[in-house]
Amino acid sequence: MKHRYGLFGAYLLAIGLLFASAWSVAGPVLKRRVDAVGTGSVNARILASFQTHIRPAQEWYVTVLDGGTPSTAQFAAFSRQFATATFVSFTYEYSVNGRSMQRVYHARSGHNEPNTGMAGVRAPRSYRSFFTHQGADIVAWHDARPNTSTVTVSPVPGDNFPQQRKRDAELKVAQRIERDILAGRVPAGGQLYGFSSQEPCASCEAALQALSDRRNITVRVSFLGFGSAAYTAFDRLRHQHLTSIEVAVNGGQLNLLNQSAESPAARVGVACIDTPGDGEVAD
């Protein structure tokens, strides 16, 4: 009789664990489109991610030029990847011994090493090596994922560049958080709040959903509606910063007479990934 109740108790325990695991799923990724400027801290967070990446990029580009001056086409090839990339900033909130904690992650879509914009020219130092003073914020890169990872690339049917989905900004963040969980740096089961310069693509959303499902993390993402006032405000600041870099590398002199006043995104379109070009270094 005792053995029978022991088996029955084990059965009830198994059923309980099954229901507990079912209820532990955090649910679908929730997305919110932001069109108006000044909606919460969305623009500020996205701009913070952009600045985190563009400041080292300027230092890196100066070392690439080594005192030289780029042509208009060469600078355009360099700046395009920052003018069209997706920039994201995520805050992961969790508890440790009842104490609320958080970590901030920034990421940019595209290759770890930017295109120099000059055929056959490679940078003397890696772009990543210029990220030396970022404070507590973490920059997520396209790194090798653990063998136990469930956050993988999900190419979209009909995608012209399916292999480049592994360099999506959201995927970089999701995989970095998973690595931090596996390494014991942060616990699973927290809340992840994201801010993106554009709507997450299907592959990006799938990566975030995989993180949510496997690590019981609630994920919410606010993104700038393309063409909206909020997006235009961010893109204008992005364009201005890139123009300031062009002025700086030209010795403070730049002929703007024949340059369009519209933003880079309006000319070339925004992409979740960047495409291969001359001077590109494989990750």
Q: Can you tell me about this structure?
A:
This protein has one domain (26-268). The chain has a 6-stranded mixed sheet with strand order 1-6-5-2-3-4. The protein is of the alpha/beta class. It has helices at residues 2-24, 42-65, 72-84, 169-182, 202-215, 229-249, 264-268; strands at residues 30-34, 87-96, 99-108, 138-139, 191-196, 218-224. The chain starts with a helix and ends in a 15-residue tail after the last helix. A hairpin with a 2-residue loop joins β2 (87-96) and β3 (99-108).
Task: Please describe the topology of this protein.
Layout: H1 2-24, E1 30-34, H2 42-65, H3 72-84, E2 87-96, E3 99-108, E4 138-139, H4 169-182, E5 191-196, H5 202-215, E6 218-224, H6 229-249, H7 264-268
Parallel strand pairs: 1-6, 3-4, 5-6
Antiparallel strand pairs: 2-3, 2-5
Helix pairs in contact: 2-6, 3-6, 4-5
- The count of domains is 1
Report the uncertain regions: 1-5, 7-24, 254-283
Instruction: Sketch the major β-sheet.
Output: 6 strands, mixed
Strand content: 5-15%
Work out the helicity level: 40-55%
Strand arrangement within the widest β-sheet reads 1-6-5-2-3-4
Mean pLDDT reading: 82
Distance between the termini: 64 Å
Quantity of strands, as a count:
6
Rg measurement, Å: 22 Å
**Class per helix and strand makeup:** alpha/beta
The number of helical runs is 7
Element order, helices and strands? HEHHEEEHEHEHH
Can you tell me the overall shape?
Answer: globular
Could you give a short description of this structure?
The chain has 283 residues and is of the alpha/beta class. The protein has a 6-stranded mixed sheet. It has helices at residues 2-24, 42-65, 72-84, 169-182, 202-215, 229-249, 264-268; strands at 30-34, 87-96, 99-108, 138-139, 191-196, 218-224.
